[in-house]
Amino acid sequence: MTPGSANRDGLTPHDAKKIDQKLVDAKVAEALAEDAPTGDVTADTIIPADLTATASLMAREAGVMAGAQLFEAAFRLSDSRIQVTFEISDGASFSAGERIATVAGPARGVLTGERTALNFVQRLSGIATLTARYVAAVSGTGARILDTRKTTPTLRVFERHAVVCGGGTNHRFSLSHGFMAKDNHLAVLAAGGKDLSVELHRVKAELSPGIPFEVEVDRLDQIDAVLDGGAEIILLDNFSVADLAKAVTHIGDRALKEASGGVTLTTVRAIAETGVDTIAVGALTHSAPALDLGLDIALAPVD
């Protein structure tokens, strides 16, 4: 599945847990070039060429794994002789103190690739872990947890992968992969004297078949015009729980209901229980703390 492919509801199926290896290698190569543009001055001078390293990726806290491909690539691209063996795969949970992977090979390469590898796996595992907490919080309600476009520039495909690893669902990949008229779009139309329902009908007729058609509202009295305009998904932004429940009842089966705005682990269960179909959580990617993972290294001479 390509990064932007989606179902008619605009959501990418969340069973794909492998990233295109070419994307992985290109991004990791860029990160390594940033970290050691002319080589690793320290490792290349202080570490003898005849030393190998065996290192363990250890969990300092419990979490959900994400980023195995990037972790492996950071070492392989530092030195192709390095071997990485995983004991825990992407999407799997682990406890504090568990070994996640073993890295073995030339010590210089292991030391050079260490920080880049950890940066990726700590970041992505943090996203997966936070996502899993949101998914657990709405368990049994039928609501799906969605990511948003609030991702780190150029890292979206990887951060979305981490959301999937945590049990979440991907929203549209980019502005090119779905129609979503938000508050500022509607404000511009209103300022221009355009009739919202008429404009939505016009745009929908011009879109290519299969493109999801979503419109945001922030008040109950906006819903009918959006429904009249043919919205297939209605984004209920910053609604109170009471108003969400009213909106869900009013919309019924005429469109999918998506909640967003100010969603936290404290509020997400009540939001889900209103009957919305999906809940968009920007915090999954913009506020997830890096997970505490460490690389413990032991050295041994080459035979």
TrEMBL record:
Pathway: Cofactor biosynthesis; NAD(+) biosynthesis; nicotinate D-ribonucleotide from quinolinate: step 1/1. Transmembrane segments: none annotated. It is an enzyme of class 2 (transferase). Residues 40-125 form the Quinolinate phosphoribosyl transferase N-terminal domain. Keywords: Glycosyltransferase, Pyridine nucleotide biosynthesis, Transferase. Residues 127-296 form the Quinolinate phosphoribosyl transferase C-terminal domain. Its EC number is 2.4.2.19. Gene3D superfamilies: Aldolase class I (3.20.20.70), Quinolinate phosphoribosyl transferase, N-terminal domain (3.90.1170.20). The keyword Transferase applies. Pfam families: QRPTase_C, QRPTase_N. GO terms for cellular component: cytoplasm. Involved in the catabolism of quinolinic acid (QA). Belongs to the NadC/ModD family. This is Probable nicotinate-nucleotide pyrophosphorylase [carboxylating]. It comes from freshwater metagenome.
